[in-house]
Amino acid sequence: MLLFVAFIFFVFAKGAVARNGAQSAADAAALAAAQEVRDELTDGFLDGLESGDWEEWLEGEEFLGDGRAAAVDLASANDATLTDLGTGTLDGKPSFEAGVETNYAVGDSLIPGTENIRAKARATAVIEPRCTVDVDIDPSKKVKFMCDGSGDWEIDPKDPGDVELPEAKDLFAVHLAD
After folding, report:
1. What is the pTM of this model?
2. What ranges do the domains of the chain cover?
């Protein structure tokens, strides 16, 4: 009887390991999608300096992609398959919800039917703008904004090459939703 109970605990432990692996893969996939789009937002911000619509990009409102390629790669690297990826907003910020299924099953056990069960998990990542725009500045003459963690930026929109331009991590934070 004790041996049977030990085997049952072993099956549940295998299931827990599979579930944790699936959750890690979902977290990685959601974060990868958000980081890929964050890089796109930064490129759009730099393009927006020339066209004058940089404020929308800086607020994270003008993203175009969905980060699917990066999410597929990271899910695969974690021995899982991306089953779906949704884009949306969470508290007004761009969000990416990834669903994954492990490529491996729980395996053989004493409990019939568990040998083909694959773990599934979901995770949501959010892109959060780190900067606020100085509203007292004429944006056609000067771009000025303050970013948490990376300081103040002042850029001449007609000649942005004079200043070391911010990187993606300076403009936007990426994190898993709570």
Report:
1. 0.81
2. 2-176
**What's at 7, amino acid-wise?**
F
Q: Is there a contact between 74 and 29 (Cβ–Cβ < 8 Å)?
A: yes
Nearest Cα to Cα of residue 166 among 65, 149, 62:
149
Residue bearing tokens 């492990």: 102
Position 113 scores a pLDDT of 64
d(CA 85, CA 36): 13
- Per-residue H/E/C for 104-162: EECCCCCCCCCCCCEEEEEEEEEEEECEEECCCCCCCCCEEEEECCCEEEEECCCCHHH
Starting at the edge strand found earlier in the chain, the sheet holding 151-155 runs: 131-133, 143-147, 151-155
Mind listing the pLDDT tens digit for each residue in 117-173?
888 999 999 999 888 877 777 766 777 888 887 788 787 777 766 667 778 888 889
